Amino acid sequence: MRIPFGTLAYIGALASFAAPVAAETVTSPDGRISVELDADGEGIPFYSVTRDGKPIIAKSNLGFNFIDADPMRRNFAVVASTTASADDTWEQPWGESRFVRDHHNELALTFEEKDDTPRQITVRLRVFDDGVGFRYEFPEQDHFKTANIAEELTEFNLAEDATAWWIQAGDWNRYEYLYTETPASAVSTAHTPITMRFADGTHVSFHEAALVDYSGMWLRRMQGTNFRAQLAPSPRGPKVVRDTPFHTPWRSIRISGDAAGLYESNLELNLNEPNRLGDVSWFTPHKYIGIWWEMHLDDSSWASGEKHGATTENAKKYIDFAAEHGFRGVLIEGWNKGWDGNWFGNGREFSFTEAYPDFDIEEVTRYGAEKGVRLIGHHETGGNIKVYEEQLEEAMALYERLGVDAVKSGYVADAGGIIADDGKGGETFIWHDGQENARHHLKVVEVAARHRIAVNPHEPIKDTGLRRTYPNWVSREGARGAEYDAWGSPKNQPDHVPTMVWTRLLSGPMDYTPGVFSLEGRGAEKADIPSTLARQLAFYVVIYSPIQMAADLPENLAKYPAALDFVKAVPADWDQTHVLAGSVGEYAVIARQDRGSDAWYIGGVTDENARDVSLTLDFLDPDAEYVAKIWADGASADGLGEDRHAMTVTTRKLRKGGTLDLHMARAGGFTVQLVRSGE
After folding, report:
1. What's the average model confidence in pLDDT over 415-419?
2. DSSP string of 432-472?
């Protein structure tokens, strides 16, 4: 039966039935996406998805296995139904776009076992014009007090084979892999977001939203193109332990006719709860430099001694450069005790309040404040969340007292090697994306918020849109970042960022740490990073984060003043975003409007193939003329050849509807700044 929906206010209707309820279908507001939710003849709950009448997800079963109870797999009937619709617009305190529209139709079915002691479970389904989200809700009930979940039985059964872009899950290096392009029928077990493209051009991305007190979801291919949720492991046995009532994270499926629509979707944000922190204007989107790249080059060390990078003297040099060039922040890694010896996957010796003797944190923060520069704090845990949580309150209080209002944290440990409290005062080892670590990350975010501090974790749990609920969770790593260009084997390949745009970056901001102007990694005698100089600038537009690093050494940044001028000008916060062109794994061109002005910025990157793009500027104000300043690959530029630094800087005047024809060299890119004439 098809359910009628209202179009404006949130409307809900509840109907309970003693007899089973008939199969129900819910459609997106535009009517193009349709989802059926029901239980089949064996009483197995299932769903299926079509778009424009074409199957996207064939019949896919729903359910759970437990370690101490019968499975929730079959023998269910639908006993209750609710429907609702919503059309609302909400404002982000910072983001890719200032305003987000939440327009969806909802269906929730309650399934009950046909049993003497029946258990109930509700599946809540929301359908948007750009995709589908659903979650399980366990009500309070006499026969089921605690869910010790062994595994979800949630299926994603593709209606046909597709091309997939993915990274393996459950492997030692967390999320930090180069992406693989294969048929969907050749995927093994993948992290989400995983993106797929059908033969007709339909794009689909699978992920999750609002990962709270639950294990992260991997996607495991069972056979053919049938996938099933696989929860990250736990040392306790059950992968999730929750008392009823509770609900799971949302399982999300973005659906679009092209790659652009996939990126522009706000599906996961809309599936998260609104801001719980209230006014967070104390966080300012910004750009920063730091004592960081020199360690990756092995010019200095995190550890104490002759090569120690985080000295008072060195910090002041970075602060001076930041003040001269308008960078708000300076990240200082290796300032605190604990870096000597084996800290990787250990972290037992870290102090988050005691500095090494050659770093005077009181003096450095005072000096920075005098120059108008803020320190960005650093908390590397070595994956030891037990030690970190024991010091967390004191560490955040110290930063608040010193005026440090952003902190980069780190969890450098192999997957499965996070050290947590076992509840008896000892240690246990957990996964980066397990339930225990999901709890930990939210604890850090909540403690930091009380001290008005923004959080940017590296080696984190994946992004699932919780920045909406906790807007001080401003960015994270969660993929292969620019550090691999220092020492990676291989380095980040030209197709890495054009793939991440449509995979990892669908989940949220990434602290990629761009801006390596030298294009030289560790021990290089000449430029060896697969990139042109213009491409490094494009990262600031293409890779979104409200905090953006200029990663290179200050002397290398200063060596290329035209490039530095762009980094100084480009904003870190946006009013609106449009994808102008792109194809997964090949190239991406994105336009963003500055939240603080009428200026627009366009960034483009390509893979190992040189590429020409023709852009129509339909997004500009029709009543204004714009001066376009263009940083582009020079005629001899080649991101895989000898001349990687050739870059031209030109200007021209343009209006709405005008076109820009631009060339990208191999592993190249471009950026454009569009400012109203006279401003």
Report:
1. 98
2. TTSHHHHHHHHHHHHHHHHTT-EEEEES-PPP-STTTTSTT
List Cβ neighbours of 86 (8 Å cut-off, separation of 6 or more). 10, 102, 103, 104, 106
* Nearest alpha-carbon partner for 30 in 129, 131, 132: 129
- 13-66 pLDDT per residue, tens: 333 333 455 568 999 999 999 999 999 999 999 999 999 999 999 999 999 999
Reading the block at residue 672, the tokens are: 């454009």
Assigned fold of 11-270: Beta-galactosidase; Chain A, domain 5 (2.70.98)
pLDDT of residue 335: 98
Q: At residue 504, does pLDDT exceed 60?
A: yes
Query: Active-site positions?
Result: 483
Mutual angle of helices 435-450 and 385-402, in 10-degree steps: 20
Is the pLDDT assigned to residue 339 strictly greater than 80?
Answer: yes
The upper half-sphere exposure of residue 483, i.e. CA atoms within 13 Å in the direction of its Cβ, equals: 16
Mean pLDDT of all residues in 336-352: 97
Q: In terms of Cα–Cα distance, which of 229, 244, 250, 40 is closest to 150?
A: 229
254-255-261-267 Cα dihedral, nearest 10 degrees: -30
Considering the segment(s) 286-478 as one domain, its CATH architecture is Alpha-Beta Barrel (3.20)
pLDDT digits (tens, 9 = 90+) for 610-667: 999 999 999 999 999 999 999 999 999 999 999 999 999 999 999 999 999 999 999 9
Residue spans of alpha helices (H) in 184-298: 259-264, 267-270, 293-296
Widest distance between CA atoms in the chain: 78
User: The tokens 């949580």 sit on which residue?
Assistant: 389
Cβ proximity of 453 and 407 under 8 Å: yes
> CA dihedral defined by 579, 584, 587, 591, rounded to 10 degrees?
10
Kindly state the tokens that stand for 663: 């060339």
Is the Cβ–Cβ distance between 628 and 654 less than 8 Å? yes
609's tokens? 């193939």
Q: In 527-599, which ranges are continuous DSSP H helix?
A: 533-542, 554-559, 561-569
Angle between helix 361-371 and 385-402 (nearest 10): 50
- Give the domain 490-507+522-679 fold: TIM Barrel (3.20.20)
Q: Which amino acid is at 190?
A: A
pLDDT, tens digit (0-9, with 9 covering 90-100), for 148-194 = 999 999 999 999 999 999 999 999 999 999 999 999 999 999 999 99
- Percent residues over pLDDT 90 in the chain: 95
H/E element, 87: strand 76-91
110 CB contacts (<8 Å, ≥6 apart)?
A: 78, 79, 80, 81, 120, 121, 122, 139
Q: Are 11-270 and 286-478 in the same CATH fold?
A: no
The residues, any chain, with a CB within 8 Å of residue 11's CB and separated by 6 or more, are 5, 84, 85
Helix axes 361-371, 312-325, angle to 10 degrees: 10
Q: Where are the domains of the chain?
A: 11-270, 286-478, 490-507+522-679
* Average pLDDT over the chain, rounded to an integer: 96
